[in-house]
Amino acid sequence: MEFAEYFPVWDHMTPQQQQAISAGLVSRSVKKGTILHSGGTDCTGLLLIKTGQLRAFILSREGREVTLYRLFDRDICLFSASCMMRSIQFDVAISAEKDTRLWIIPSDIYRPIMERSAYVANYTNEIMASRFSEVMWLMEQVMWNSMDKRVAAFLLEEASIEDANRLRVTHESIANHLGTHREVITRMLRYLQNEGMVRLSRGTVELTDRAKLEVLGGAVNI
Prior knowledge:
Layout (H helix, E strand, L loop, with lengths): L1 H5 L8 H10 L1 E5 L4 E3 L8 E6 L2 E6 L5 E7 L4 E2 L15 E4 L3 E6 L1 H10 L1 H27 L2 H16 L3 E2 L3 H8 L3 H13 L3 E4 L2 E4 L2 H8 L5
Antiparallel strand pairs: 1-8, 2-7, 3-6, 3-8, 4-5, 4-7, 9-11, 10-11
Helix pairs in contact: 3-4, 5-7, 5-8, 6-7
């Protein structure tokens, strides 16, 4: 079974548990821009990515987005099954940033397995701890780093993900990732262009001096 190769604790589960997941497992292919999970009232299930890229984000009452983290090949998303974890008090939305192939493990199947299997419970807790660490790191960036540093760090991360210096990304998209207004991003990008770090054109941002961006962004990723 192909899924077993992607699920690290598969061999530590009983045959009955493996059968339960196999019987309920849903395979999906989604297009870029698809909303897979829309918040706490939506209990989609656990998402395990085969290929592609997902984005977890929160939405303010004013409609402003901020990216919490990204998910890539072989990553698993737990916040899409937040109904299993009653301690989670905030709504997380999940969207596809690229065409993505994934599996969905229904929450009502995964929960009893997690409650009975120490291996699955530990694996789940490790993932949850890792995601919360990313959220706490993001809070530190928002609280203590200026917007020009955050924009520089975001551009460096995008260049690393896409393995390219020329990025097809809009000012609006960057604003959504960083939880700010498009006008703020436009002003920051023009500043970076004036400093020779990027070159702007319609729908694209080209990194022209990564070394200076790394100094500005603190050589860290957003």
